[in-house]
Design goal:
This is F-box domain-containing protein. This protein has about 170 residues and is α+β, with helices and mostly antiparallel strands. Helices cover about 35% and strands about 10% of the residues. The protein folds into two domains: about 60 residues, no CATH class; about 60 residues, no CATH class. It is elongated.
């Protein structure tokens, strides 16, 4: 007995919803989530790009890319360059995977390759503490060897600058 599989594609249940409901769903999404949605189907990409107010009013969106982004002659209307921050640990992981990062240990990883080559491959990352999407340089340190850290320099600096609070239970830190 042979089984036949159909390759006919039908619109998803989400796309069968009225446009007003889909627009309401988009309004509940972060800028990063909307960016991911634009990469899933042409229909979603077109719908989101046809209504720029959808992404311009979301959490994490920034109109002008940060100065650290490499200038390009043409920029799409909405791209990773327009993401200032993500909104969850899951988005941090996805953003860093998209940028080409591998899972980083708390103490960072030693970098053996040339730093310029690394910068061209991993131009940005998302910090799991502040949720900011930042330049790779914010995750690098050099003391004898280059290390790529999981947390950005701003968060590491805050962590180091904050004094240890004494534990009221036993009077020690």
């Amino acid at each position: 007995m042979s089984h036949e599989f159909t390759t006919k594609t039908s619109p998803s249940l989400f796309l069968r919803l009225p446009a007003e409901l889909r627009l309401e769903v988009y309004s509940q999404c972060s800028a990063f989530t909307l960016l991911i949605l634009t990469a899933t189907t042409r229909s979603l990409r077109s719908e989101i790009f046809l209504h720029p107010s959808i992404y311009r009013q979301t959490t994490g969106y920034i109109q002008e890319p940060e100065a650290w982004w490499t200038p390009r002659t043409t920029l799409p209307a909405f791209s990773i360059r327009n993401i200032k921050r993500v909104t969850s640990a899951e988005e941090v992981q996805l953003c860093n995977r998209m940028a080409g990062w591998k899972r980083l240990a708390k103490n960072g990883i030693r970098i053996n390759s040339k730093i310029d080559k690394l910068r061209s491959r991993l131009p940005y990352g998302a910090c799991p503490i502040c949720l900011g999407v930042k330049d790779l340089n914010m995750f690098l340190t050099c003391s004898y060897v280059w290390r790529l850290w999981r947390d950005c320099a701003d968060c590491e600096k805050k962590h180091v600058e904050q004094p240890v609070q004494p534990n009221p239970m036993w009077g020690g830190p």
